[in-house]
Amino acid sequence: MAILTVRNKASSAPGKYVGVYLDQEISSYLSLYALSKEITKSVIVRDQMKEWYKGKRVVSSEKELVETIAIEIKKAWELRNKSSYLVSDIKDFKKQLKIELHQKGISEDHISAILATFRSR
Hints:
Structural class: mainly alpha
């Protein structure tokens, strides 16, 4: 039986695991704080991320982020076509782009929005 316990506030909404490495000092303090408050480190980090998310959505809307990414993709496409050895078909480029965005954890809805914005530029 554990001597020290924590209350685990399980999330009711489906989510996605995101792992991160922290500096030893931060990690140690996080563990100490969590144990003293009888909560998990995950609860602390999740709550902080929710606050960060609320603040960032005010500063940068999803539409603005999609547009910024589309601009970078257009630059990559133009650079690729300037290099004689990298000239590729737009269809292949978009296919590879979809794969890369998916691997980076971008949702299908956002991938579609990014591709639509890229096409309109």
